[in-house]
Amino acid sequence: MASQVQTGIGIDVSALVREGAELTDRALEALIPAAATTPSSIHSAMRHSVFAGGKRLRPVLAIQASIAVHGGVPKGIEDLGAALEMLHTYSLIHDDLPALDNDDLRRGKPTCHVVFGEAIAILAGDALQTQAYEILAGLKCPAASTVEIIRLIAQATGTVDGMIGGQVLDLEGEHQKPTAALVDAIHRAKTGALIRVSVVAGGIFAGANAEQAKALDIFGRKAGLAFQIVDDVLDVTQDSAQLGKTAGKDLTSDKATWPAVFGVEQSLLDADRLIEEAFAALDSFGEHADGLKAVARYLVERKN
Ligand code: IPE
Ligand code: IPE
Ligand code: MG
Ligand code: MG
Ligand code: MG
To answer: Which residue stretches of 173-252 are H helix?
Structure first.
């Protein structure tokens, strides 16, 4: 499927992802109120979705971007990762609601609204979003970097070229004839923007200068688009047990997807090409970016 890894040879990407996920999980465990905390229903719902078994790829990307800049893992990066994962999980809870994609399986478990009801699921998504910003406000980095990270994340999850805007285009794109321009706009916004900002924020947290932040932005844009192309492909090629979510859903919902426009084979080629192009943006980081490149490669080679 994918071409040979060009860089990062010798890197154990599954170990990188596992270690990043473990770091993130420990932070999330400490940050999200215990299920017993009043009101218990919402804390149980938040924990149900956050700890259902996500891959933690956005925190992992943030960690690897910080290493590209800093040469090692900067202290406190796990709080940034936790906030990104909370925002991502909020987007998933809402994505699965009956009014949006109407899914009952997520991360191998019944979706939040199936277990806790729609009202609590909506509020659990809201709560993950607000708590994410509380955590971001306390990031252990210079105040100017904190403000910049918050601004970029708010933008990336917002309505103009951001996650919410992308979700709107995705919903309004159902039952329309999908075009290349439409799926490009949907994918860059609904998923690409949060992936891109995860990379950029990780870099800024680690002290990236403007030129480094720009390079990470270019990398993140390409990797983010590749990520959603692969999400669409996996929806066609894998089963629900493998995905932990309902396979074949895009076809039954008549979604505007990359394979619907270009076919599965071309989609995989496009994802591969985007990752190769993304690598070029990281030249100036030298071998400190090898982990980031390995994770980007993993984004397109994953099977769930
Ligand atoms: C799935 O994202 C939803 C999209 C944005 C396409 P992931 O594939 O990262 O899902 P988890 O976090 O591992 O469950
Ligand atoms: C979800 O896209 C994007 C966001 C949650 C913002 P999808 O609808 O394709 O994600 P899955 O396939 O349900 O995970
Ligand atoms: Mg959706
Ligand atoms: Mg969905
Ligand atoms: Mg999908």
So the answer is: 180-187, 193-205, 210-237, 240-243, 249-252
Whether 54 is in the pocket of ligand 1, judged by its Cβ within 6 Å, is yes
Distance 154 CA to ligand 3 centre (A): 20
Most informative mutation of 25, 57, 301 for ligand 1 (most atoms within 8 A of CB): 57
Q: How many CB atoms lie within 10 A of CB 273?
A: 14
Give the whole-angstrom CA distance, residue 36 versus residue 103: 27
- The HSE-up count of residue 267 (CA atoms within 13 Å, CB side) is 26
- Closest Cα to atom 14, ligand 1: which residue? 54
Digit-coded pLDDT (tens) for 135-165: 999 999 999 999 999 999 999 999 999 999 9
Give the 3-state secondary structure of residue 100. Answer: coil
Model confidence pLDDT, tens digit, residues 97-142: 999 999 999 999 999 999 999 999 999 999 999 999 999 999 999 9
Q: Quote the ligand 2 centre to 170 CA distance (angstroms).
A: 9
Structure tokens at 85: 């994962």
Is residue 202 within 8 Å of 64, Cβ to Cβ? yes
Reported pTM:
0.97
Tell me the C-alpha distance between 183 and 298, whole Å: 22
CB atoms within 10 A of CB 287: 12
